[in-house]
Amino acid sequence: MDELIPLSQAMLGEIPSSITVPNYDRRALRPGIVHIGLGNFHRAHQAWYTHRLMQMGLAQDWAIIGAGVRPGDTAMREKLLAQDCLSTLIELDPAGKSAEITGAMLDFLPVESDNATLIARMAQADIGIVSLTVTEGGYYLDPETGGLDAGHEDIRHDASRPSAPRTAFGAMVAALRLRRERGSGPFTSLCCDNLQGNGMILRQTVVGLARLSDPDLADWIDAECSFPNSMVDCIVPATGPREIALAHSFGIADAAPVTHETFRQWVIEDEFCAGRPDWDRVGAVFSSDVHVYEAMKIRILNGGHQVICGAGELLGLGTVAATMAHDRIRAMFRKIARDEIAPHVPAVPGGAALDYIGLIERRFANPEILDTTRRVAFDGSSRHAGFLLPSIRDALARGTPLEGLALASALWARYCLGVREDGSVIAANDPLWPSLQAAARAAQETPAAWLEQVSLYRDVKHAPRFADAFVHWYGLIASRGVNAAISGYLARQTA
Q1: Domain Mannitol dehydrogenase C-terminal: where (predicted)?
Q2: How far apart are CA 417 and CA 280, in angstroms?
Q3: Alpha carbons 301 and 233: distance in angstroms, whole number
Q4: Rounded Cα distance, 468 and 459, in Å
Q5: CB neighbours (10 Å) of residue 182?
Q6: Which of 8, 216, 357, 379 is most exposed, with minimal Cβ within 10 Å?
Q7: In angstroms, rounded to a whole number, what is the distance separating the alpha carbons of residues 187 and 348?
Q8: Helical H runs in 365-481?
Q9: Across the chain, how many H-helices and E-strands are there?
Q10: CA nearest to 163, candidates 201, 190, 123
């Protein structure tokens, strides 16, 4: 093939005409957003919406400054700064691939142990929004109460050293303290993680952390700052050699390209205390009832990932698409979603839950999206509790079916043993992996021991209907294997 064009501002004019590039003067952009936890999802989602506004001549003062609080974020920073914070987005559609270059991001702050540069930048008056993607398990929730885990080592550190915090939330508190002192006003804190009521959870974390060191500041943040709830949706695989090769196929040398599906959705409460871009001009939805959108997406899409990934991993099916190509797993997903999740999901404007299930089934089955079962299985301790437990709890309260949800939990318990059915090893894939493995080993002797994990099963662990179903399916998986257990579930559901 022809020589690759290195992605940079200076080389944009050399990019093939089939690839859309920024038509705006990036030198004239002014920052308005700091995004913490800048990875593939943000670049395919929030940054894309902002870029599309800029292509229309809008949002020129809402450019994005990237940031990270983990040492691992340094590698992404170096890659993006080397290419002037430009990103190649490659849309993966079975009908054909397409690419565009986005340029809404201007800088990526240094990653520091005390977050000094991040605090200073958020404290400047031109920043109106601080947004985050720090994973569902990153909000320091107490596993028993759901409130802020004030005893966590990181929270104790930030409460005792508020000017040199180690967490993103401590950095936000420190920046807001400076803004209050300078009279430059609050900023909007915008969560873009898959948590129901994510704005309320972010408020709880930020205000709760501030209250541990400065109650007056906590009151000011609670009264003056806004924390809109939002629902985000786009399947965005991790970047590896295949994705870099895809960028090469378009003639571009990009060290961190992003692949994504054709579908995007973003629903946001219109509560922004310091202004916002008009993201609705490019497809986002501002709604006063984000919760119904959240419930449908989190329970069916995110919950659906947890339904299928344990079985897929145990059978050595490496991608979500390969898992959905397995007839029994696909049928299991369809039945659990239809019979055990959808009854508890309210309709959203313009769409019923059963229609949404069909959409998700098609998205999961897209063979161009090489989204790994390992990625969607990561942090199951947060995702099972957040995405499946609400449906289990509703089923218990309403007397509706829950056999498939119990089966999904049993498959996950078997997965946490760390060995696939072919004997290959499943590497650690959860922040709580050691304790999960200990519980999984105990379940080999006494299956109900798995349910004794209070942080995961809380009030449902002793519910006889769920516990009995879990024990049944775990025993069948252990004695006859994954396929037999799924077949037994499908037969029982159709009997």
Answers
A1: 289-474
A2: 45
A3: 9
A4: 15
A5: 11
A6: 216
A7: 30
A8: 373-377, 380-383, 389-398, 403-415, 433-445, 454-457, 464-480
A9: 22, 13
A10: 123
18, two tokens: 């089939």
User: 5-288 maps to which CATH number?
Assistant: 3.40.50.720
Helix (H) or strand (E) run with residue 64 in it: strand 63-67
Kindly state the helix (H) or strand (E) to which residue 302 belongs, with its residue range: none
* Separation in Å, CA 38 to CA 126, 154, 239, 429: 20, 21, 14, 21
pLDDT digits (tens, 9 = 90+) for 427-442: 999 999 999 999 999 9
- Ramachandran angles phi, psi of 237, nearest 5°: -65, 160
Q: How far apart are CA 485 and CA 453, in angstroms?
A: 23
Amino acid occupying residue 290:
V
Give 495's pLDDT tier (boundaries 50, 70, 90): very low
In total, the chain counts a number of residues equal to 495
Residue 127 corresponds to which tokens in the numbers above?
């920043």
Residues sharing a CB contact under 8 Å with residue 219, sequence separation 6 or more, in sequence order: none
Question: Average of pLDDT values for 405-420?
Answer: 98
Which pLDDT score, from 0 to 100, does residue 19 have? 96
Residue 493's pLDDT band, with cuts at 50, 70 and 90, is low
pLDDT at position 145 is 84
Hunting for tokens 């006889």 — which residue is that?
464
Asked whether the beta carbons of 47 and 264 are under 8 A apart, the reply is no
Domains of the chain by residue range: 5-288, 291-494
87-93, strands of its sheet edge to edge: 96-102, 87-93, 258-260
The closest of 254, 255, 251, 257 to 2, measured between CA atoms, is: 251
- Chain centre to alpha carbon of residue 291: 16
Amino acid 87 reads: S
Q: What region does 28 belong to: left with phi over 0, alpha with psi -120 to 50, or beta?
A: alpha
> Which class would CATH give 291-494?
mainly alpha
Amino acid identity, position 3: E
What is the residue whose two structure tokens read 């340094």? 74
Residues 290-309 have a mean pLDDT of 94
Q: What is residue 114's DSSP assignment?
A: T
C-alpha closest to that of 185 among 129, 130, 225, 228: 225
pLDDT in tens, 227-261: 999 999 999 999 999 999 999 999 999 999 999 99
Tell me which residue of 142, 145, 141, 167 sits closest to 154, measured CA to CA.
Answer: 167
Q: What is the DSSP letter of 288?
A: S
What type of residue sits at position 451? Answer: L
Is the CB of residue 388 less than 8 Å from the CB of residue 412? no
Q: Are 254 and 90 in contact (CB under 8 A)?
A: no
Contacts of 202 (CB under 8 A, 6+ apart): 132, 139, 189, 191, 227
Average confidence (pLDDT) over 114-139: 95
For the stretch 64-112, pLDDT in tens is 999 999 998 999 999 999 999 999 999 998 888 999 999 999 999 999 9
